[in-house]
Structure formats: C-alpha cells, structure tokens
C-alpha cells in the first residue's frame, strides 16, 4: 500500500476528498469567512477527511480559512497544499517559481497559515520551466526528511515529467484535471502513474460545475469567474456542450442519482488509485458529492458514459491559450488533415 493511502486510511478518509479552492478563488466573489468556516465545519462533520488547498488560492486566504476551520482537528484529517505558484502582491499576477529556496519558504508560510507543523502531502503546483524538475522535487524531498511534509506531489504535469521526477524521489500523487469531459490523463498520465506507483488525484471531477448542471448560461457567471475565459464555456461552444450534459442528466435520472453523482461514480470506476476532490461552496452539494462514495455502476452504464463525452464530442479547449502556457500536461488536438484525435505535450 502506498504511503498516500496509508495516511488516508489512518484518518478513515473516504475516497472522495474536498477541494477547498472554490471558497476563495477562481469562481467570482469570495465566500465570506464566516460562511466558509461554517461550510468547512459541516464538511468535516459529514465525513470529509481529505482537504486540499494551495498557496495560490485567494492569495493565501484559502490556506488561512482552512487552517482556522480545521484547527483542533488536525490529527483527524489528511491535509494537502501546494507550492511553486503564488500571487505577486505588487503586480497581482500569479508567478510560477520552482526554485528550492522559494518552495521551502512557501512551505514554512503554509504551515503557519494552516496552523500545523506538517502537511500530509505537498504538491508542486506547476512545473517551472526555468528549473529542472529534479531540483524542485529534491527540495520537497528534503522537507519530507525534516518532517514538514509527509509526501511529495506534482500538479498538471506530463507522463515524461513524472518519470523524471520519480527518478529523483518517490511521488505520492499527481493532481490533474480528470472528468467525463476532460479525459487528458487517459492519453499517457494514468499509465505512467500506475507504472511508478503514484496515485492520481482528480481535480474538477465535475467539469467545473458543468457535470453537476450548475452552469446553464455562462453569460450569467460573475465577471471574475475564470470559466468566462475558458473556450468550453464560450457562447459558441457551450450550447452544444450543454446537449452532452442533457444526455448525462437523462441517464442519471433513469438511475435515480444526480448527474454529479453519476460523474463521480464513473471516475471512481476507473480505478481505486484515482481519488476525486470535487470542490463546492455549498454544504448541500458537499453532501451530495460524498454520497457518491458508495455508488457503483455496472459495465453497461460505464460503457455508455465512456462514449458520451469523448474528446471529439466536446467543443473547446479546457484552458485559454494563456492558461495553457503554464501547464505541462498532454493535450488532445485535431490533425488538420483528418478527424483523428491526436495529442501534443506542452
């Protein structure tokens, strides 16, 4: 058993975690601290034990609210955060920096904000193309040796980068976007994770709300909502993508579950080494998502879902060009001379 699962099992964590970003970052207005604290308290009470945050989220505000909410419960939960990407307080822009000294400083600051002396898992949030992955991973390995983190993780990286990283130090988990309508890890990353014994932690397993039916009209999203800049949510692409959701919704209704629960069940059916961490601001949705822990689907349903949102059916890239430039993952694309689906590694 991997050390990742050993630590999860030590706190009796379900195999669905909670992404905390939504409370402070990315989706429009920030949830008031009092409401965020209540939501995190309710999440713990309903059974969540795996909480995921990052230095970047809310320009450190997310770590602060998570730390405050979970103080006194630390020994009962699995806590993960991320380094290597942060908001520059002067420019207000995000900066990717994987230098060892930066990662150490960010870790020590994260520990203070999260009110703990160690993190169970600490991810390199983005690959810094100016710093060899071996140097960044080596710095995180030293933090493990010092007891400040329990394991090393990577986020939004390619299969090749993972293999290079593992040659330097064991990688407990790779965090990557994976859902019914974002299948990029199936290109090469899942195979590489299994090859080296690394867990895949799936962020945005509900397609940034799409698979839960949370977005009917992207034009109604707040100005600061990052989905406004994502091609899949554009005025040209979203109406067709919405027809895919309607098919999912129809199937979910026939099975007496919600579309979001069915999407999570599909992801869990892909392997016990795949851990979804849906994020939400709503305790009701937290409860709905966690209920998918005990939901299983048969082979016929799995096949239906597999075919429902293949990459050739989803319109639009998952990121804008500017966002895409910051990640290292394999991406689907179309050969200009045919309709064959291919991929390229950024």
Summarize the structure.
This protein is of the alpha/beta class and 346 residues long. 37% of the residues lie in helices and 14% in strands.
Distance between the termini: 32 Å
Number of strands: 12
Rg from C-alpha positions?
19 Å
User: Count of DSSP helices?
Assistant: 12
If you average the pLDDT, what whole number results?
94
Describe the structure.
The protein is an alpha/beta fold and 346 residues long. It has helices at 3-10, 33-46, 61-70, 100-113, 133-145, 159-168, 189-196, 238-254, 259-269, 283-290, 299-308, 321-324, and strands at 18-19, 50-52, 78-83, 85-87, 94-96, 121-124, 152-155, 173-177, 199-203, 274-276, 330-334, 341-345. The strands form 3 sheets. It has an 8-stranded parallel beta sheet with strand order 1-2-3-6-7-8-9-10. Strands 4-5 form a two-stranded antiparallel ribbon. β1, α2 and β2 form a beta-alpha-beta unit. α2 packs across α3 (61-70), α4 (100-113) crosses α5 and α8 packs across α9 (259-269). 46% of the residues are buried. Mean pLDDT is 94; it is low at 334-346.
Provide the fold topology:
Layout: H1 3-10, E1 18-19, H2 33-46, E2 50-52, H3 61-70, E3 78-83, E4 85-87, E5 94-96, H4 100-113, E6 121-124, H5 133-145, E7 152-155, H6 159-168, E8 173-177, H7 189-196, E9 199-203, H8 238-254, H9 259-269, E10 274-276, H10 283-290, H11 299-308, H12 321-324, E11 330-334, E12 341-345
Parallel strand pairs: 1-2, 2-3, 3-6, 6-7, 7-8, 8-9, 9-10
Antiparallel strand pairs: 4-5, 11-12
Helix pairs in contact: 2-3, 2-10, 4-5, 5-6, 6-7, 8-9
């Amino acid at each position: 058993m991997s050390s990742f699962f050993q630590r999860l099992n030590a706190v009796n964590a379900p195999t669905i975690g909670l992404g905390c970003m939504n409370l402070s970052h990315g989706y429009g207005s920030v949830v008031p601290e009092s409401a965020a604290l209540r939501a995190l308290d309710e999440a713990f009470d309903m059974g969540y034990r795996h909480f995921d945050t990052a230095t970047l989220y809310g320009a450190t505000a997310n770590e602060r609210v998570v730390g405050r909410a979970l103080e006194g419960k630390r020994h009962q939960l699995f806590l993960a955060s991320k380094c290597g990407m942060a908001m520059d307080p002067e420019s207000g822009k995000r900066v990717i920096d994987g230098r060892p000294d930066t990662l150490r400083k960010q870790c020590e600051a994260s520990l203070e904000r999260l009110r703990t002396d160690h993190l169970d898992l600490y991810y390199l949030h983005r690959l810094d193309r100016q710093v060899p992955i071996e140097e960044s991973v080596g710095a995180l390995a030293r933090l493990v040796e010092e007891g400040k983190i329990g394991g090393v993780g990577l986020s939004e990286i390619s299969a090749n980068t993972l293999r290079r990283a593992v040659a330097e130090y064991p990688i407990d988990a790779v965090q990557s976007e994976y859902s019914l309508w974002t299948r990029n890890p199936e290109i090469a990353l899942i195979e590489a994770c299994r090859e080296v014994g690394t867990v895949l932690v799936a962020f945005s397993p509900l397609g940034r709300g799409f698979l839960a039916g949370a977005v009917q009209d992207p034009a109604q999203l707040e100005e600061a909502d990052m989905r406004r800049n994502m091609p899949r949510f554009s005025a040209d692409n979203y109406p067709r993508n919405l027809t895919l959701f309607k098919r999912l919704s129809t199937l979910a209704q026939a099975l007496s579950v919600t579309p979001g629960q069915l999407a999570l069940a599909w992801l869990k059916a892909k392997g016990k080494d795949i851990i979804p961490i849906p994020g939400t601001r709503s305790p009701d949705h937290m409860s709905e998502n966690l209920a998918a822990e005990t939901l299983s689907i048969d082979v016929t349903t799995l096949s239906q879902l597999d075919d429902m949102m293949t990459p050739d059916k989803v319109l639009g890239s998952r990121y804008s060009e500017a966002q895409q430039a910051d990640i290292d993952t394999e991406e689907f694309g179309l050969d200009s001379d045919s309709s064959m689906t291919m991929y390229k590694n950024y």
